[in-house]
Structures are given as structure tokens and as C-alpha cells.
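May I ask for whichever protein you like with its C-alpha cells?
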Amino acid sequence: MLTFTVGSGPALQVAESADFDTGQAVYRVTGIGTFTFGWDQDHSPEADQPPAEERLQVTYGVGQFGPHMAEAPVVYGVTLSGAESFTRTALTAGTLRLRPYRLFISAPVRVSKTAARRTTAIVSALAKHWLAAPWTPALRRAHEHHRAPHALSWYSVRIAEHEELMRCLREERAAYVRRADQAVAVLQSGPVRPPEGAPPHPFTLVDTAGR
């Protein structure tokens, strides 16, 4: 059990766990609820991406993502809903400002600023602990492994799109090359001399009329 002091409130008792199947860290805060940390599912960091550019994610609750998460945190009497993404830079610089949602008749609405500030303080403390843990690099690799099938599918679609684009570009290039070759052939054939019986050049008529 971990103990966190966040602001002027009572110390938080926290149990941590790590899911190496999905690459997520789970923090259960006694009397509040569960916060699940990981990397943004839509902005997965590449292997060579600097840590400062990572987009992290906190999910309010645990388990299968949805509007009604199991063990969703309750802050100042408000049950948080959904997930939020943030950068490691904002977290380490102390500029993180979360704006979590709550459900109101099944519709998401922003929580009060007071609840948002308290949520930000709790998430900041837990996230810093998570990122500093010695097992977090392995957890990131687990996240990448879990997301690899999705990434492979996504990149395969992009590759196919670019291959089609390249095919179209090759066809257009071939057409331009043919036209360029035609232009070269025209130039190499030399200027066109007027055949016998052709009318005179218009400038010739002008010069004759002016004399």
C-alpha cells in the first residue's frame, strides 16, 4: 500500500498494480476509486520517439472502456467518467490541467473547476509515481505489443493507399514523358517552312502596305 499527500487533504492510501497484457498501470485509491494509466491509444509513441513527446492517458475507472467504468473515482461527490490524454511535458512542468467529465442523465458534462483541480492534483501525483517506477519501460513495451495488431492494420492501410497513389503518379509521369518526347521530336524536326503556294507572312503584307 502506497501513501500520497496531495494538497491539504488527508493522505491517500493507494494500491498499485500493473497489467502487462495491455500495458496499463492501475491505482486504486481508498475511498475515491480507481485510476488507470497508460499511453494514449490514438497516439502510441514510436520506438524512437522522445519521452517528452509521449501522450499519456488516464482512464477514470478500470476494465473495458465505456461511459460507466467499474470503480470510477468519486471526487467531491462527483463520479468521473471517460478518459483524458495529456503530455509528459505538461505533467513534469506542472502545467497539467485536466477537465474530466461526469455523466448527467447519460450525457457527459464537465465537472466543476474545484473537482477538476482536485482530480488534476491526484492524477499528477499518481502519474509521476507511475512514470518513475522501474517497471514502467517494460510496461510501455507491453503496451506497444498489445497495440501492434492495430498498428499493423493501420499502417497496412496507409501503405496500400500510398501504393495506389504511387501507381497513379507513375501513370501520370509516363503520360508527361510521352508528351515531352513528342515535344522533343517536334523541336528536332526543325522550323516549319511554308510550302509552295502558301500565302505570305502577315508581317510581309504590313511592310509592303507601308511603303
Q: What stands out?
A: Residues 49 and 196 are 74 Å apart (CA to CA). The chain is about 40% helix and 25% strand.
